[in-house]
Amino acid sequence: MKKQIPSSIHFLVFALLTFACTGKNQNTPSFQLAESGKMIHIPLDTATSNVSDGLQFFSGENPLLFNLNWMENSIQIYDLTQKKKIKELKFDYEGPNGVLDIMGIYVHNLDSIFLFNQLVGQLTLIDTAGTIKNKISYEVPDQYSPAFIHNAYFKSPPILKANKLLVKTHFYGQITSVTNEQLNEKELIYEIDLKTGKTDFFGVNYPKDYLLAGFKLFEPSIAFGAGKYVVSMFGDHRLFYMDSIGTSLKEVAAKSNYLNEAIPLFPKNADGLTYRTYSYYSPHYETIEFDPYRNVFLRFAFHAMDHDPNVPVPEMRNHSGPFSIQIFDQDLKLVSEKFFDKNRYHPFDYFLTKDGLYLSTNHPLNPETKEDELAFELIEFKPIENQ
Description:
Strand content: 35-45%
Helix content: under 10%
Shape: globular
Number of domains: 1
Order of helices and strands: HEEEEEEEEEEEHEEEEEEHEEEEEEE
Distance between the termini: 48 Å
Radius of gyration: 22 Å
Strand order of the largest sheet: 1-24-23-22
CATH class: Mainly Beta
Number of helices: 3
Mean pLDDT: 92
Number of strands: 24
């Protein structure tokens, strides 16, 4: 026999839930970004570029900044308290101590640092002494790339849970010939079993209507935080998310205040220069990142910019134009957006700390840029009043 719950109990539960939600909204501040003028300068050696191939911040008693140097196949570790390099880890490409080409890193802790390449299904696990603790071979799914972990391009950090590693991937093929129907069948992520090397898809596919209007770059950035897996696409104002892995993607409106409603399309028969110009200088979205210190999401939106023909093709991405950073609360509601003018900041080199967002000022056209240092300005999170 089913027990009847008194209506007074229903009312009490409703009241408690209402109070809890109201309290949460009142106690969760909204933020806007503001330049502080406070700088960090880190000296570099002559073999290290002032534009990083990838950064990762690691908090602790002595906060550290890991810097990836592709040319040297090395990782430099900087003490942010002392503002100096304390260690450099150089690796062979091949042989018993080889780690292949390091494309990306993930510092899980100081004894577990994952190295990723883009050639074969192999993860290398090291510590801060540079000791190779393990090499893990895994089965790369047919027609897909090895784990695509990049610390400066559409960031999508891996997610480690127990002995399973969730990673972003790319599918192989001529991208400009992909139809919307074909894209619907392509996977965004897979999971690597670190014990067996087996990989599994979860049926997390691209948004169903992404290419309906025509072709546009379909690079994603994926972030995990506040109990959500969040996906941002190059050419879509919306954010997509799952509450648990493998469930259908939901969507929320998330348009930048600085981008037009219509996202530019790409002519499929265009040449390589036109494709690069479109990829770097057309209005689009790039990395979405979860900020664990303030429990918010940040997304970088890039504004339209004309291509300067004097800029060498390999340098085009580093000569980025104006951009803005959106802040979303834990429910993916847009609460603010900060505009940054061109030629001051290098928006692909940054890191988050409890103090705020440290954004590189090493844009090639910034007259204050110096080749022998990494330079960052603290962009502070200011609470928005009367919200």
